[in-house]
Design a protein that fits this description.
about 0% strand; about 130 residues; about 80% helix; elongated; mainly alpha; Four Helix Bundle (Hemerythrin (Met), subunit A)
Length: about 130
Amino acid sequence: MPFVLWSLLLAAALPLIWAGVAKAGVRYDNHRPREWAAQLDGRRQRANWAQQNAWEALPTYLAAVTAAWLMKVPVAEMNAAAAVFALARVAHGLLYVADKAALRSLAWLIGLLAVLYLFLRAGGVIAL
């Protein structure tokens, strides 16, 4: 199976990973998870925000890969874009937790550009 398809699983797992980082090592209230999360601070709060942003990025990435796949964008190009997206999104979460705002925003932008590339390539706007 090509990496681009495995990257869908990775993109879907990232929010769960960041949620785990937010919850690790503290007492978690499963009866009131949103109230509990609203009281987080520091690294845990930023991990929760990384989780939320990862959920927000997921549907657009899934749509971009689907469009590229259906329009038969070459697999090597999809794999390259998927690798850029995956690395950018992992870096985004790590930089979010580390409170490196400018670098985090750069990682977010790189991930977005990978998504845009897939859409534009699928639409024939970019032809190689």
